[in-house]
Amino acid sequence: MKLYISVDMEGITGLADYTHVDSFKHNYERSRKIMTEEANHVISAAFDLGCAEVVVNDSHSKMNNLLIENLHPEAQVIVGDVKPFSMVQALDSSFVGAIFVGYHARASMKGAMSHSMIFGVRNMYINDVAIGEMGLNAYVAGYHGVPVLMVAGDDRAALEAEQLIPNVTTAIVKETITRSAVKSLTPAKAGELLREKTAEALKNRDLVKPLTPPDNPLLRIEFANYGQAEWAALMPGTEIEENTTIVRYQAKDILEAYKAMLVMVELAMRTSFC
Questions:
Q1: Are the folds of 2-115+133-207 and 218-269 the same?
Q2: Which residues form the active site (predicted)?
Q3: Spatial separation of the C-alpha atoms in residues 124 and 109, rounded to whole Å
Q4: Could you give the angle at the alpha carbon of 186 between the alpha carbons of 31 and 57, nearest 5°?
Q5: Angle at 82 between CA 80 and CA 83, to 5 degrees
Q6: 69 is in an annotated binding site
Q7: Does residue 239 have a known ligand-binding role?
Q8: CA angle at residue 187 from 150 to 191, to 5 degrees?
Q9: Average pLDDT along the chain
Q10: pLDDT value at position 128?
Q11: I need a labelling partner for 2 at 20 to 30 A (CA). Which of 41, 81, 110, 271 fits?
């Protein structure tokens, strides 16, 4: 049994604001340790439940946050930037399931540090359905026939997961007060919860179906300002919807839509004055 784990940072226990997740800020090094410990709880539970192989993808920012020297010795780790499939790099049909750890709510929604890839995105849509990082990643997993078995993060990430994926297991390690304040479990208590929920998710894996993506999906990204939309629309095949900051791209499949999203948001970040 082979398990895939994608680990983001904003949904990790006790992390409340940008000082915890920005590598230039004072709380970041503490946060890396908590993030690594959190991943280890899920990895250990997976091995205890009979997984023969666990692949962990560092999925936050430059994707070099996990302290590999402190990670479970039997885990395999994907680390660094640039990855063609970012938060779900190397996820394929060989995995029995995927677990998302440290995840957060999508842009424009309530939730600790809620966003979708970059803070310049207001909304993302696949065929006019609003979706965030979690949904796009789950669609890529579904393309390969892999179900998302568990999502760990704040209460709003859990709600988003439950609305998106029937029978998914959720592990709520903190509750949202505002976008930059939370009521959190301690790392020790969160560890107990994560081990318990990972075991539950693996035992109930047959109840969760892969999130099947639509054929020929239309990707639409709404940016915060027109300059970001102009940069994103430099990618061939895109166009700005008139009188909006929405850039659209007609993809042949969800894999192409995912890569298009990555290119569009990277271009949008070049906007220097907002």
A1: no
A2: 115
A3: 12
A4: 45
A5: 90
A6: no
A7: no
A8: 45
A9: 97
A10: 87
A11: 81
Closest CA to 103 of 160, 142, 48: 160
Assigned token pair, 170: 């959720």
Check whether 41 is labelled as a binding-site residue: no
Domain ranges within the chain, ordered by starting residue = 2-115+133-207, 218-269
Query: Annotated binding residue at 104?
Result: yes
Q: Which fold has domain 218-269?
A: Gyrase A; domain 2 (3.30.1360)
E strand or H helix that includes residue 178:
strand 169-178
Long-range contacts of 75-81 (CB under 8 A, 24+ apart): 75/39, 75/43
Q: How confident is the model at residue 272 (pLDDT cuts 50, 70, 90)?
A: confident
CA separation for the pair 184, 14 (Å, rounded): 5
Q: Which of 20, 72, 115, 144 is catalytic?
A: 115
Give the closest residue to 154 by CA, choosing from 117, 131, 181: 181
* CA pair distance 183, 239, nearest whole angstrom: 42
Q: Is 60 annotated as a binding residue?
A: yes
Distance of CA 134 to the CA centre of its chain: 5
Q: Is 144 a catalytic residue?
A: no
Q: For 220-262, how does the pLDDT look when each residue is reduced to its tens digit (9 = 90+)?
A: 999 999 999 999 999 999 999 999 999 999 999 999 999 999 9
Residues 103-131: tens digit of each pLDDT: 999 999 999 999 999 999 999 999 989 99
